[in-house]
Specification:
Elements (H helix, E strand, L loop, with lengths): L1 E8 L5 H10 L4 E5 L12 H6 L1 H20 L14 H25 L3 E4 L1 E6 L2 E5 L5 E11 L3 E3 L12 E2 L1 H4 L8 E5 L3 H12 L3 E5 L11 H13 L3 E3 L3 E7 L4 E7 L2 E7 L1 E4 L3 E3 L6 H4 L22 E3 L10 H15 L14 E3 L4 E6 L2 H6 L4 E7 L4 H5 L6 E7 L5 E8 L2 H13 L4 H5 L10 H10 L7
Parallel strand pairs: 1-2, 1-6, 2-3, 6-17, 8-15, 9-10, 9-15, 10-11
Antiparallel strand pairs: 4-5, 5-6, 7-16, 12-13, 13-14, 18-19, 19-22, 20-21, 21-22
The protein binds flavin-adenine dinucleotide (FAD) and adenosine monophosphate.
């Protein structure tokens, strides 16, 4: 029986990063994963690289180029002929990027001397794991430490069963061979909005059906309002308070039935994307037999040091309750690898996890929303700055959106930063660093920001907390 100091189950951004960090710290490491990629071969990178973060951003970027050519070039004095879209080429570009990046992880495994095992892992207890390879052959390996990083999978609702053709999940929505004329999306969460944006920019009529009455309830209210305005103005029809209760697939398309406060309604689509959330992936792990405790929603229970109910077995990333984000999974992975190696005892703390939604304008935040501070009775101050007053944003024809900084009234400590605007996915890191260092708005206000940059909007919002913004 092969034996390792650390065995990682799952090679998504949680698992592969944990494996690399453990190997860096001198451990003997193996990583087992069962993912089969588009070419029918075993591949690394999990949801994020294969059907999540990376392919969605590749298509978002392609569709943004189309949008610019069609709608923004003119303002710059550039005339182009008719803009046509070759969907198979666009999708093939996305596939090439995925292949390069997943291949890159295989290279990193080799460099760090991590043993890669292809197959599905099942916990046997006492540090033993049974692995069934894709050809059905079996082996048992043992490890002093086991890190479970089995991630999540899309929730499949019985009223809209995916068929890989008319009704698809996030994987299928990244593989359409042509632009659907009428596209329905169930769920106005991050994934629904990003995928809806891709196909809208390429020409689909997009309708998003969302059961909840509020739009982007997790975001700051003011940001959610601005986002709703921007997304609607792009022609995406967002219907709130619309709970899908049935679907019927025919040769011509799919008929969706949904309930609203006014009663039952129907809509016809050529394709339907189901994006109603994700659930922890523990199928096949043998959790019950091994005595691995799950919570009532199926997430693996861990303490603040990632330890599960089983000795020597840790869990990280999407399979543990918390933000279902790739960067959170990776940081969990680093922390648990360091804990196992006896490094400094860091504990789980998601106060400074940034959130990003890659619509256009982009949305990003870290920390508390204004409504949460109000609900908690915290005395706070707020400062905002619009991109319309940013020289760089105006030079880019991207004056939409704003930045808002929230601080504790008594100390000026930053409690939350909220952004909607161009490339705020890149800008949010400055706010995260500030919060990690417990900075005040005054610290940001006294920091020299290069001119002209989009990040000056954060500088000005910090000044605005003290009512001394210079450019509004
Ligand atoms: P996963 O990436 O899900 O990896 C788990 C791995 O474990 C898989 O490879 C699976 O095959 C393997 N596995 C499971 N069970 C077993 C078993 N028993 N034996 C062997 N192997 C097993 N997050 C962001 O931060 N930014 C984004 O922009 C973003 N965009 C997204 C867009 C889409 C369309 C989707 C679907 C998700 C997106 N996410 C994004 C979320 C992100 O993909 C996840 O948070 C992240 O992948 C979680 O990482 P993980 O390592 O926990 O799990
Ligand atoms: P998220 O969990 O952020 O990916 O978002 C998924 C969204 O889908 C949530 O806002 C849910 O309210 C929404 N949702 C779930 N089930 C349905 C349904 N049957 N009809 C419409 N929206 C739904």
């Amino acid at each position: 029986m092969d034996s390792y100091q650390t065995l990682v189950i799952g090679a998504g951004p949680g698992g592969y990063v944990a494996a690399i960090r453990a190997a860096q710290l001198g451990q003997t490491v193996a990583c087992v994963d069962r993912w089969i990629g588009a070419e029918g071969k075993s591949t690394l990178g999990g949801t994020c690289l294969n059907v999540g973060c990376i392919p969605s951003k590749a298509l978002l970027d392609s569709s943004e180029q189309v949008h610019r050519a069609q709608h923004q070039f003119k303002a710059h004095g550039i005339t182009v002929g008719e803009v046509t879209v070759d969907v198979p080429t666009m999708v093939a570009r996305k596939d090439k990027i995925v292949k390069q990046l997943t291949g890159g992880i295989a290279g990193l495994f080799k460099k760090n001397k991590i043993t890669r095992i292809e197959g599905s892992a099942e916990l046997l207890g006492d540090g033993k794991v049974a692995i069934t390879a894709h050809d059905g052959s079996q082996q048992t390996v043992s490890a002093e430490n086991i890190i479970i990083a089995t991630g999540s999978e899309p929730i499949n609702i019985p009223v809209a069963k995916t068929d890989g053709d008319r009704i698809v999940d996030n994987s299928g929505a990244l593989e359409f061979s042509e632009v659907p004329k009428r596209l329905g999306v169930i769920g106005a969460g991050v994934i629904g909005l990003e995928l809806g944006s891709v196909w809208r920019r390429l020409g689909s009529e997009v309708t998003v059906l969302e059961a909840l009455p509020d739009f982007l309830a997790a975001a700051d209210d003011q940001i959610a309002k601005e986002a709703a305005k921007a997304i609607k103005s792009q022609g995406i029809d967002i219907r709130l308070g619309a709970r899908v209760t049935g679907t019927k697939v025919s040769k011509k398309g799919v008929t969706v039935t949904y309930e609203t406060a006014e009663g039952s309604e129907k809509a016809e689509f050529d394709r339907l994307i189901v994006a109603v959330g994700r659930r922890p992936n523990t199928g096949g792990l043998g959790a019950e037999n091994a005595g691995l405790k799950l919570d009532e929603r199926g997430f693996i229970e861990v303490n603040d040091q990632f330890l599960t109910s089983l000795p020597g077995v840790y869990a990280i990333g999407d399979v543990v309750a918390g933000p279902m984000l790739a960067h959170r999974a990776s940081e969990d992975g680093v922390m648990v690898a360091e804990l196992i190696a006896g490094e400094a005892g860091i504990h789980r703390d998601y106060r400074c996890v940034p959130w990003v939604i890659y619509t256009w304008p982009e949305i990003a935040w870290v920390g508390k929303t204004e409504q949460a501070l109000r609900a908690e009775g915290v005395e706070y101050r707020a400062g905002s700055f619009p991109f319309a007053a940013s020289g760089r944003a105006r030079a880019m024809e991207e004056g939409q959106g704003f930045v808002k900084v929230l601080t504790e009234a008594s100390s000026d400590r930053i409690l939350g930063v909220h952004m909607i605007g161009p490339y705020v996915s890149e800008m949010i890191s400055e706010a995260v660093v500030a919060m990690e260092f417990d900075a005040s708005a005054e610290d940001l206000a006294r920091t020299i920001h290069a001119h002209p940059t989009l990040s000056e909007a954060l500088h000005e919002a910090a000044l605005a907390v003290d009512k001394r913004a210079l450019h509004i």
